[in-house]
Amino acid sequence: MYSTLAAPRTGNWLTKVPAITATFWVIKVLSTTIGETFADYLAVNVGLGPLVTDALMITVLAVALVIQLRTRKYTPWIYWLCVVLVSIVGTQITDFFTDTLGVSLYLSTGVFAVVLAVVFFLWHRQEGTLAITSIDTPRREGFYWGAILTTFALGTAAGDLATEALSLGFRNGTLIFGGLILLTWLAFRAGAGQVLTFWIAYVLTRPLGASLGDLLTQSKDFGGLNLGASTTSLLFFAVILILVAREQILANRYGVAAKGDGPLGGRRADFTWAAAGAVLIAAVGLGLSSTHAATTSTDTVAAEPAATTGASGGPGAPAAPVAKQPKPTTRLGNLSAFATITADLQAMVAKNDLAGGKKRAKDLEVSWDDAEAGLKPRDSGKWHQLDDQIDGVLTSLRAGNPTQADCAANLSTLKATLDQFDGV
C-alpha cells in the first residue's frame, strides 16, 4: 500500500488523487478525528443542532467537491479538505440512521457494506478497473468520491458496532483496528491485491481515527488521556497542516507521481515526516496529559484542610479519619457530575427561572456529549436510557413556550435515573 499504488509518471497531471504513502495514511487517520470533533463542536458547543449542522456540512462538502472536480491536477489542500468534509458527512449519515431513525448498528453496517459493494460493482462495470492510479476522468473521480463517502459511513457504523455493541471501548478499539490495518499491510506485502487491501485499510482508518481521538480526549476516569476535544483537534490540525503544506510544495515542484523525488522527497523522507508527525502527537499528548494530572493532583491537595479537629474540636486534636470514596458498583461508573448539574436545574425550575435553566442545560448537554465515548461502551442500554431522558430535559427547557411542570417532571425522571445508575 505504498509506492506501487502511485500514479505512473506519464500523464500524471491528470491524476486527481495523491500517491499512497506513509504521510497519506497519517493525514487520513488524523482527518477522521478532526472531522468528527468539528461536527460535534458545531452541533453541541456552538448550538447549531444536528439538523442545521448536517445541512451546513453537506452544503460545504458540495462546494468543495465542485472545486475538486474542476481542478485539472492533484491539489493537496483541496483534496484533503474534501476528505475532512466527507469524514464529517459520512459520520453524520450513520449517526442519523442510528440516533434519529433508531436503525440497529448491525443493520446499518450491513447496508453500508452492500452499498459500497454496489458502488464498486458499477465502477468496475463502467470503467473496467478500480485502480487508485486511474482516477483521471470526471466519471472515475465521481465513483471514487462516492466510494470514499460510503467507506466513511461504513467505517463509522462498523466502528460504533465494535466499540459500543461489542463493548470494546476506545482503548481496545485503538489496538484492534490498528492491528487489523497492520495485518492488511502484511497481506499486501505477501501479495494480496493492491485495490482490495487499500479499500480495506481505508475503511479501517475511520474507526481507528475515532478510537485514537477518544483515547486522547476522554477523561482519565474513562481510561483516556484527558486532553479534551479542543486541544486534541488543535494538535491534529497542526500536524495535518504541516504535512499537507509539504504535500502541496512537493506536488507543485515534482507532481503527484514523483511524490517528492528530489532534494525534499523520496520514500525515506516521506516515512520520516510521517513518523515525526506520529511521534509529535504522542509526545505532546502524553506531556499534556501528565501536566493535567499533576495540576489536578495539586488542586486536590490544596483543597484539603490543613488540619482537622477531633471530637473535642480543639487545636491539635487527632484528625478524624477521612472516609474513602467507594468504588463504582455499576458499569457506567461515577455520574455525580451530571447529577449535580441536574440538581442545579431542578433548583432553577423550582424558582420558575426557566431562562436560567435553559442556559445551565447547555452545560449538561456539552458534558454529556463529551463523555459519550467513555460511557456508552460500558453499558449501551443504560446510556441510551439516560440520553433519551437528557434529550427530554433539553427539549422541555428549549421549547418555544416552556412550562414549569414539564421541565420539573423531566428533571425529576432524569435525577432519579442518575441516582439509580450512579456507580459511587
Automatic annotation (TrEMBL):
Chain spans, region Disordered: 306-328
Composition bias type Low complexity, residue spans: 317-328
Keywords: Membrane, Transmembrane, Transmembrane helix
Superkingdom of origin organism: Bacteria
Pfam families given in the database record: DUF347 (PF03988)
KW Transmembrane (keyword) present: yes
Record carries keyword DNA-binding: no
Segments crossing the lipid bilayer: 41-65, 77-97, 103-123, 143-163, 175-204, 225-245, 271-288
Name of this protein: Membrane-anchored protein
UniProt lineage: Bacteria, Bacillati, Actinomycetota, Actinomycetes, Micromonosporales
